[in-house]
Amino acid sequence: MSVNSELLPIATSRQTFRFVRRTLAADRSASAITALMFLLAGATGLVAPWVLGAIADDVRADRNTAVSSFLFIAGAAVAGAVFGGIAMVMLARVGEPALARLREQVLSRTLHLPAEQIERSTTGDLLSRLSDDVRTVSDGFKGVVPVIANSAVAVVFTLAGVLTLDWRLGLAMVCSAPLFILSLRWYLPRSRPLYRKQRVLQGERADALLTGVKGAPTARAFGIGPTLLRQVEESSRQSADVSVSVYRLMLRFLNLINIAQFAGVALVLGVGFVLMRNDATTVGAITAGALYYLRLFGPIGGLLFTFDRFQSMGAALSRLVGIVELPSAAEPTADAVVGPGAIELIGIGHEYVPGKAILHGIDLRIDAGERVALVGATGAGKTTLGVIAAGMLKPTAGKVLVNGTPIEPELSATYSRVFLVNQDAHAFAGTLRDFLTLARPEASDEELRRALADTFADRWVTGLPDGLDTVIGDAGHQLTPDQLQHLALSRIMLGDPWFVVMDEATAEAGSTGARDLDRAAEAAMRGRTALVVAHRLTQARLADRILVMHEGEIAEQGTHDELQALNGRYADLWRAWSGSRMD
């Protein structure tokens, strides 16, 4: 992981526990019924050892008594199965909605994370939380929580049953408890950091894999494939080493538990032998006590063999709660600004990585209705300045004013009606209507068709299989990049923003598509304040003013003709671009 990156927060154990408690309190009645059913199922498990102990005391009982005893055991088993089944159904009723809310909260917080925080964190950390951690919590809830609930109830009830049967046998059983407790106290402090480290390293491994896959063409071009491969191998090796350490620790823990179980059986039988020799108890009581203790092996084994998954589930949950507990994005509030107006960026500077400035003290004023174009070489800071102007990124230095009033773009009702269109329009799964109404959910079909017509997209939309009801996205009709950009421009007409930032919105289009998209972009920006990050200089030529950026600063500005006459950087760019078109 890069030394300049940082992980998203991880919740503490106390924060995670509070979150679980709030989640259960959301449906108190269902949670109470679930707990009651687990308790009743655990109580039925006490019947068999008690009846078998009674039979041992009455070896001369007639056949009818024996049959009734076994029927009693069978009835208790059936009742336990019924109670256990109801408990599982109620657990699903409580848990599945809670898991759904957790997924929704994590996704919501992720979508509202500040851009600068996402830039500082690693892609692998965020992706592993949204995929691996969500799956771990979901699988753990279905496979681990029921086992732990049943096992914990069985342990408590069994101990209570033995104490009721004969307190001395119960005391002998309790005497083995310190061995279990000491084993846990040895295991837990060593396992928690390992499980947490395991989840973190899995995120770093995912980040290394994503970097390698996404950067494969660049890696081949510059011959750095072996370097990326070594990074993947190193992150995978570290993750594997921690996983091996986890399993080794678990095996040592199980050995300690086996010793504790052996000591417990020896104590119960030894105390029983002493009591029997002094006629202080019965064979039936000792039999029942031994059976009760042996019955604990299953629940204790269930607790132990799922404990590693429970630890992993807890670590994953704490990473998800760390995102959920992030401060919520504040709702836009009314500004002192009355409506849209001139935008001023004063002293704007920005650093994605401390000490490496992308922008240096930029001052820019865009008057209402003015169209300004940004041009310059790759890495000059055009996109960064564009997203800051759009209110999508908070600069590390400087301030934003509208009509002379300082505002916080992310809290501004005025700024909530600003649109940013970049070159990577994404088609979410859904209909074409869903794609368009992201800009205005209440829009009617007639308004949608008008927006498409105004941007000349109606010509090809009418040819889709189901028109506005056509399902698009990965599982639906595949739209071309040009068509997706066309729809993104139609959303501008539908949303009617006062300020539009075009970040190379037509850069990826082919020659034919570029002409159509340029016409659509021109229609979408007409009458609006606009900032255009121009890929093709014909777009810049139509602007009221052109800013030439170089190494994070504004090197030149003026109209096309003024900059041509200046014969500086813009003139060089124009000659190079014009020459490439002629070639």
Structure explained in plain terms:
With 583 residues, this protein is α/β, with parallel strands linked by helices. The chain has helices at residues 13-25, 28-44, 47-57, 63-111, 115-120, 123-143, 145-165, 167-175, 177-214, 216-222, 225-277, 283-295, 297-305, 307-324, 382-389, 432-437, 445-454, 458-461, 481-495, 511-525, 537-541, 560-566, 569-582; strands spanning 343-353, 356-366, 371-376, 397-402, 405-406, 418-422, 430-431, 471-472, 499-503, 529-533, 545-550, 553-558. Helix 7 packs antiparallel against helix 13, helix 11 packs antiparallel against helix 12 (283-295) and helix 19 (481-495) runs parallel beside helix 20. The longest helix has 53 residues, at 225-277. The model has no long low-confidence stretch (mean pLDDT 81).
